[in-house]
Amino acid sequence: MTALIQYIEQKGEGYLEKVKLPEGKGKESIFKLLQFITSGFEDGPVGTIHQFGLAHGMGEKELGPTYLTHLFEPLLSAVEKRIEIHQKNQEIIECEPRVAALFLLSPLFLVLLHQKKLGGHKVRPLNLENYLKEHTDIFWKAFGKESLSNGF
User: What structural domains does the chain harbor?
Assistant: First the structure.
């Protein structure tokens, strides 16, 4: 299992490079990031990979840390890098990039697991495009520098 996870990590390196680099300025870049992760979850193997890692890694002394080390943490680190670039560009407030990245990814992962892997699209459908826009707005109100000048 560990060898498979490490192989998947290598295959995902190009994907993670795209996650690291902002597309556009501030809020637009965050929205595009959420779209990119969502598209990988919907149309690619990303959702299945994380579903496998979570389902089989929970409570497992070796597989859980292996999943974190080789799959989840590299994604989290890539998002942190993007946030750091936005901080250097004075677009995102000074904060711990890991906290901002977790704030951004955690709800997204829960929504994608709910809708795509647990059948939530049948139980209680959610318009993902609308969700991505609203999640971006909420993130930006909390972390965007322009939100501070607007009284948020």
Answer: 2-9+27-147 (1.10.357.10)
Distances (CA, A) of 67 to 8, 11, 51, 57: 10, 15, 11, 7
For residues 79 and 33, give the distance between their C-alpha atoms in angstroms, rounded to a whole number: 8
Distances (CA, A) of 133 to 18, 69, 112: 20, 30, 15
Q: Which residue has the higher pLDDT, 43 or 95?
A: 95
Contact (CB, 8 A) for 34 and 139? no
Task: Please tell me the predicted confidence (pLDDT) of residue 130.
Answer: 98
pTM over 0.85: yes
Q: What is the mean pLDDT of residues 51-65?
A: 93
Question: 49-79 burial, b if ≥16 CB within 10 A, otherwise e?
Answer: bbbbbbeebeeeeebeebbeebbbebbbebb
Q: Which amino acid is at 57?
A: G
Q: Is 87 exposed, middle or buried (0-12, 13-18, 19+ CB in 10 A)?
A: middle
